[in-house]
Amino acid sequence: MTTDDRDHNAEVVLLHPVPAPEPGGSTAPEVLPAVPGALDRRPGTDLAIYQDITRVPGERLPIIPPQWRGRQNIKATIALVGGQQWHRARYHGLRSPVYLLAALAWAIIGLLRVIGRQVRWWWVIEQHELRSQAAAAGDSREWMRLHKEAKQTRLENGADVQLGDEFAIADHSKQTL
Fold first, then answer.
1. What is the total count of domains within the chain?
2. What are 88-129's pLDDT values in tens digits?
3. Are residues 154 and 73 in the same domain?
4. Quick check: 122 and 161 in contact, CB under 8 A?
5. CA gyration radius for the chain?
6. Neighbours of 27 (CB within 10 A)
7. DSSP state of 29
8. Is the CB of residue 124 less than 8 Å from the CB of residue 105?
9. Which of 17, 79, 25, 22 lies closest to 48, judged by CA?
10. What is the pTM of this model?
C-alpha cells in the first residue's frame, strides 16, 4: 500500500449513538431528575446516563445548578448524597476491624524493621567481614585494632540508641496523656 492510496475500508461506529432531533423539536439536552431510578424507563433506552461535557463557546452556565433549583430537587439531592455517605459509613464501618488488624500488623513489621536497623548500626555489623579477613590472614594486631574500635563504637552507639529510645517513649507517653 502506498501513501497515495486513498481507499480505506474502515467503518465509523458511534460510541454513544445520539438520537436524531425531531423535526421542529428543541436540540437542548433533556433535564433529568436528581434521584436515580426516577426516570420513566422507556423501551430501548440504556441504563447508562452520560453528562454532556461539551459546551458551545460563549455559552454560560446556569447561576443556580439544576440540582439546587426548587424544593423537590434540593430534597432529592440531599437524599442522594446522604444515601451515598451512609453507604460509605456502613461499608468502611464493617471493614474497620480488618483495617485495625492490618494497621497493627504493619506497625509491628515497621517496629521490627526499625529495631533491626538500630541493632545493625549499633553492633557495627559491616565491620565483621574486616575482622574475619584479619583473623584469616593471621594479622592479630589488625584484628585487635578493629575489635577495640568496634567495642568503642558499640558503646557510643548503644548510648545513642538508648537515649533515642527513651526520648521516643517519653514523647509517646506525653502524647497519650
1. 2
2. 999 999 999 999 999 999 999 999 999 999 888 888 888 889
3. no
4. yes
5. 36
6. 6
7. P
8. no
9. 17
10. 0.48
